[in-house]
Every structure is written in C-alpha cells, then in structure tokens.
Write a structure and sequence with these properties.
The protein has about 325 residues and is of the alpha/beta class. The protein folds into two domains: about 230 residues, 3-Layer(aba) Sandwich (Rossmann fold); about 60 residues, Orthogonal Bundle (Histone, subunit A), CATH 1.10.20.140. It is about 55% helix and about 10% strand. It contains 14 helices and six strands. A six-stranded parallel sheet has the order 3-2-4-1-5-6, with helices on both faces. Strand 2, helix 2 and strand 3 form a beta-alpha-beta unit. The chain is globular and about 60 Å long.
Amino acid sequence: MSQLPPAIFLMGPTAAGKTDLAIELTKVLPCELISVDSALVYRGMDIGTAKPSKALLAEFPHRLIDILDPAEAYSAADFRRDALQAMADITARGKIPLLVGGTMLYYKALIDGLADMPAADPDVRAQIEAEAARLGWQALHEQLAVIDPESAARIHPNDPQRLSRALEVYRVSGQSMTALRQRQSAQSTEAAASGLQQLPYTVANLAIAPANRQVLHRRIEQRFTLMLEQGFIDEVVALRERSDLHAGLPSIRAVGYRQVWDYLDGKLTSAEMQERGIIATRQLAKRQFTWLRSWTDLHWLDSLDCDNLPRALKYLGTVSILS
C-alpha cells in the first residue's frame, strides 16, 4: 500500500466547513481539489448548493464543479469515471488529489466500485413519479419494503431520489438493489483476496463536523436563511423559466431546490418552504453521519477547533501521505 500514490478524502456533513479546511490544506500541501458533490456538478445552481464563489474557484480550482447542465443526469458511475481520470491526471503531475464533499455514495463508489445496475429508464421513472403523486412516497416506500427490505431500511421515505431509483432497479431488472450490491460485494471480496485494488491509492480519510450536533443544526438554519437573502428564490425562478426543466429531474430534487420549486408552484407558503428546506437539510446531514459512522480508518476533526489544519497535517504524516 505504501507504494501506491497518496490521496486525501475530506468528508463530513453539509455546512461543516469542509471547503474552508480543504483550501487551507492546499495552501501548504501540493494538492489539487476534486469536488465530491452531486449538486455542485450543475451549472446555474450556485446559491442553493452553497457553491464556492467564482473568485475562490479561480484561485483554488475544483474539478467536477459546473460540468453539467441541470437537464442532465449524473450517476455515481459517472462520478467514479470522472474522478478516477482527474486523480490520475493530478498524480501524474506529482500532486496529491484532495477530494472534498459530502456525497458519501460517490466516495463509496470510488473505493469499492459499483454493482452492475441497470441504466435509468425514463418511462419507468415517470411511472414511479406518477404513482408517488397519486399515492404519496410513503406508499412507495412500503412497496420497496416488500421487495427489498434492506434498501427500505436504509432509504428514508422522504428521500424520493434514492427511493425512486431502488424501485426503478427492481422494475427494470427483476432483482433488488440489495441483491445486485451483494453480488458486487462478493466480487470485490474476491478481488481483494487476489491482491487486486479497487482504488489504486493510499487514501487518508478525514472528516470534519461540529462535535455538538445542535451547532450544526444552527449552521444549517443560518445558511439556508442566508441563501434566501442572497437570491435563492430568483435562482430557482430562472431555472423554472426553462421549458426542459421539471420537478422530477435529479438536479431539481436536490435539497432546497425541491422546496423552493414547490413554493413557486403554490404548494407551500414562504414559511413552510423555509421550514421544510431546513428540515430536509438536517435530514441530509443525518444520512451523511450514518454513512460516516460505518467508515473505517476515519480521523475526525471538530469544526469549532482553531487548530484543525495542524491536526490534519499531523494525521496525514502518521499515515505516510506526506512522506
């Protein structure tokens, strides 16, 4: 492992301060940044995603930001392909890939590879969306619990994107997402036993978050309020003016955008939109923590500590990333 090139994963829940620490690391280490965020890939979605400013991105470029139009879909498999290419390019120039973001499925896909899931089927997805509109997502979650109990236990009824995908996989392939992932896991185990590496890097896993969960909740509320003050609603209005965008797209189902879209549709009042946007963001953070609790070899940093940079550097030294 020590002969493999180094890479750094900087993970954590939303609003934890990942970008700030990533910038500090790039100031003292030969790192180049790769975004690991399923919403930052979209152009024209800046305020609601808390995208780094254009000035910051000009000084500290992040790969995989602003690479897609909101009408396009982007999967974990797409991310894995793009991230591996970016990492290889960075490594070839003698730099360290520093991957920063909170889309935990992307990190998992990068490390373990992906099960051979069926491609998205727009017709099946439209059928699922229509059922959800008629019956509610809770009813569809109950359907999933029958055909794939493990996925249903993992996916919250208020997470329509993942819930829709799990149902779509079953309806297209006749196999549950859990069964397909178990097969992929067995293949990964066989590969590891044969000495093959899914990810040919020595990875240091860092995570940052406030030790006090209430602090994170306040940060989330303050940031959502600030987004509204910065023109988040106008940003969504501009997206709605396009005839090719609708509420069923992955981009528009992103946390915050879905609630503002519903507000503009007249389904929510302004106060309800703000409350639900904050709640949805907290739920996202909770799911991110769930992923992180199962992560191995993870070094935690407290967002409120004033010495996170030296702490991170010390840890990177102990895992031979800086040697």
